[in-house]
Amino acid sequence: VFPSLAQAQASVANEVYQELGQPPVFLFCPTEYCSSLCSPSPSQSCYLQTIGQELLPGIGVIWTGPKVVSQELSAVLLEEVEAVLRRRPVIWDNLYANDYDCRRVFLGPYMGRAPGLMSRLHGLLLNPNCELQANFIPIHTLGTWFQSELGSCAPPDHAGTWSPGALAALQGAQDGSYSPQEALELALRDWVVEINQQALEPGR
After folding, report:
1. Is the pLDDT of residue 161 over 60?
2. Which domain holds residue 13?
3. Which of 25, 62, 76, 151 sits in a 20 to 30 Å window from 168, CA-based?
4. What is the pTM for the complete model shown?
5. How far, CA to CA in Å, does 110 sit from each of 97, 140, 156?
6. Number of H helices, E strands in the chain
7. What is the CATH number of the domain that holds 40?
């Protein structure tokens, strides 16, 4: 019925999207969802070119970056992806994912994402560690990174009790800069508070 896989997928996605009344959030994950899966490259991929042409403009397209688990995301790469998809991508960030390797748990800060990245994105999804409690630092530091992207983070009233590193992280967010190390210190400070509160709960 269809001359290519991409046209078949776009046709089905478009029909479902329209049948649901064109909801404000409707995401499509392409078969080629990162640069390493594209042949020969994202901009020259016949598959992605077809998806960009055929998929209705209100449908968001998921992208993981250079690889399935990308250590870095650059604005240059996202510009290339945006051009071929004819829309800004929704990043499906697997930086912390460990469902493929249960021996791996990433407790470091959110990092390797270029400043000013949000202007090139339609959205960002974080795929966390499978272990619930291990995601406090990932999610907390993602929040600090996002605030730095917005450039509008206001310190809470009790900021005077914070460490110099935590205050620097907040000041950096206000200035539109982001330091993974300072974000980590801020996250650890809040995580200790959370752990102490849980320890006081009955049955803990």
Report:
1. no
2. 5-152+177-200
3. 76
4. 0.82
5. 12, 9, 22
6. 6, 4
7. 3.20.20.80
